[in-house]
From TrEMBL:
Protein name as annotated: Short-chain dehydrogenase
Molecular-function annotations in GO: oxidoreductase activity, acting on CH-OH group of donors
Family that this chain belongs to: Belongs to the short-chain dehydrogenases/reductases (SDR) family.
Keyword Oxidoreductase: yes
Region (Disordered): 1-31
Alphabetized SUPFAM superfamilies for the sequence: NAD(P)-binding Rossmann-fold domains
Pfam families, A to Z: adh_short_C2
Stored InterPro entries: KR_dom (IPR057326), NAD(P)-bd_dom_sf (IPR036291), Sc_DH/Rdtase_CS (IPR020904), SDR_fam (IPR002347)
Stretches assigned to the Ketoreductase domain: 39-224
Organism listed in the record: Hyphomonas chukchiensis
Amino acid sequence: MNTIAPQIHEDGLPGSEAELSPKPEWQPRYPGSGRLEGKVALITGADSGIGRAVAVLFAREGADVAFVYLSETEDADATCKMIEDEGRDALAIKGDLGDPEFAQMVVAKTIARFQTIDVLVNNAGEQHPDQDIEDITDKQLQRTFQTNIFSMFYLTQAARPHLKEGAAIINCTSVTMYAGASELLDYSATKGAITAFTRSLSENLVGDGIRVNAVAPGPIWTPLNPSGGASPEKLAHFGEGTPMGRPGQPNEVAPSFLFLACEDSSFMSGQVLHPNGGIIVGS
C-alpha cells in the first residue's frame, strides 16, 4: 500500500503545543535517580504531549534521547532544549513513520549517533472524530492505521537487530481500546490492534530477554485533542467524564512509561498500565 500524506492542512494535525492554551504540564515532578543512566531511548511523537513528557523524564533519569516528529519543528526544538537542559544528548528526526523506508532511516540515524537503542517507545498517533461510520473515508482509514499501528511494525522491525537482552519496548494504546469511543471508530480500532500487537510481540521476544509492555492513557490534555477535530464545546468539558472529573496531564502519564522502561518492571511483559483518571477497565 502506498503511504498516504498526513492530513495536516485538512484539520490541523498534528497540532502545535507552542500555540496551545492552557499549556500541557510536561515537567518531571521529582529529581532523577539514575534509573536510565547510560541508556538510549528512541521515542516517536515526542515533540509535544505525552511523548515530550516521556522524553524529558527519561533524560532526567539519565538517558540520551532520539525522537521522531512529523512537522512541528518549533515544538521539536523546544523538546531538544528540554532534554539538553537535563544534561543529556538529544536527536530530533523529522518525517512520516507511515513510510517504512523512513522508519529504517530513523533507526540508522539513531545508531549512527548513539550506537545502540535500549528503549523503544512507540507513541505517535493521530485521530479524526466522526459522528457516523459512513463519514470515514478510505483515505482517512488508511492514514489512521498507517500512523497508529503500521508505524509500530515498521519501526520495531527496523530496530529489532539493535535490541539486545534487557531492552524494553513500550507502546501507547488508549482507554478507547477498552471503553470504546463512539466518535473515534478508526482510532479505537487501531488502539485495539496496538494492545494485541503488544501482547503478541511480548510472547515473540520475551525469550530473548526483551520486554514489551504498553500504556493506555485516558483523556490527557495534549495538542492531539484540539487539533484532532473536537468541537469547542466538547473541549470545554474535556476529561470531566472521568471519576476524577478532569483530564490528565502528560507528566501524570510519563512515569508509567519510565516504570516500564527501567528495571523496576523487570518481571513484567505483555502488560498494560492505565493512567486514566480512575476509569475501571478490563486489563
